[in-house]
Protein: Sigma-54-dependent Fis family transcriptional regulator
Organism: Falsiroseomonas frigidaquae
Amino acid sequence: MAAAASRILIVEDTPTQAEVAGALLRTLGLEVRVAETGAAALEQAQAWRPDAILMDLDLPDFSGFEAMRRLRAEGVEAAIIVVTAHGSVNHAVEAMRQGAVDFIVKPYAKARLTVTLQNALEKRALVTELREVKAQLGRDRFFGFIGASPAMQAVYRTIESVAASKANVFITGESGTGKELAAEAVHHASPRKGRPFITLNCGAIPRDLLESEIFGHVKGAFTGATDNRSGAAKLADGGTLFLDEIGEMPLDMQVKLLRFVQTGTFQPVGASRPEKVDVRIVSATNRDPWVEVEAGRFREDLYYRLYVVPLHMPPLRERGSDVLLIAAHFLAAFAREERKRLRGFERAVEQVLAAYAWPGNVRQLQNVVRNIAVLHDGDRVELSMLPPMLLRGATGQPVAAVEEAGCPLVDPKVAEIERSEPPYPAPTEPQAVLSSSPQTPFAATPQARPDHEEVFQSLAEVEKRHILAALDRADQDVPRAAAMLGVNPSTIYRKLQAWRGEAASSRH
């Protein structure tokens, strides 16, 4: 039964009926109070805050239905159980419409009231618990963001804290983590939300056009300047200018940007007079800005002007269950767009999504879910619908479950090579294969054989063993292996294709 602290308000104008119900409830260890009118019920409910209310429908001043409407309007959240001698279907339906959780007809058995009240109290306790858990987790939606993880709650709080100020914001994070979405959130949460939000990708504009894109130009300033043109700084007047990939900006352009940040003034290319604007600058980069400063690629004085409020966007792999929240959101959107029936993920698929490292972050997850929605249909997403790269990268996924779905865990190109020739034992540490000591730079490690002289492998064999070892370490994920080796993924794909051709030739 419910805890002894549970409070029950009996709304009953017949004293004998109220006494019988009260005596029963007290034997169950519950606190009981009685109200004989609707007005008294409203007063008691506000002052005492009961957990449940037994509501009679026939009251001296107004009906129990009216009392229920007023209780809800005043924010009383107690579970209401209607108790009446009029047990018609219409009464029951109306009681439920007004928010009652159950309906009991007089006279009632002790067991009926006990079970009904117990269910109502347990349901109310569950709702309260869920509300508290949600309050602890925080929001799972925020200006276009989806995520309830602690890392994202910190992002939300930072955006809310800085939004009202004029301070410049510097956003860092890996590609695909939502840096532009964060910049938009800063703008839309600020008093500037009614003014323009202008985005400029510094890495996508040729360096000889960057100054014109930011500050604009006048007619005849250079070849092709056939008319006056406002730049991003002018267009963003009163609003926010978002400089994405600012680490790609050339040093000579950084000098001009520094002056603009310091004074709020700029001079269009070819113009004779400066212009002044009121612009808030939000910058972003996927690099470590201080490392760029130390390397001489980013001006230190500009760094201090822009890096006023840092905002780091966490990678998807550090956001826990946010992966499933975001995947569900994308699946609903793309299934609707593609007119597919997909409405959720099988448990095994959720395990794969949660275990994958997501090197491309939210953008990669979005592309994966879109791929599934375009190519497949069904009630739920199954393992067989996932791209092979996810199954290779899901280190926590049981192999049997994946293999039963017919999804290979190993890259087919690698598997064919390994079937066609004797396997090479992977070294315990890849560094053991190649040595960078001054005495023997990049020398192949000798293989000692009893009673024989040392036999050296060819450089081609050493390279092959090293690449295959890296692929093993990366669970056959070519991009991850390439990152470990410091090469472009296309290099590994090219090697794999060449080895496959050699294996095919040897069989013929």
Observations:
- The mean pLDDT is 80.
- The first strand starts at residue 7 and ends at 11.
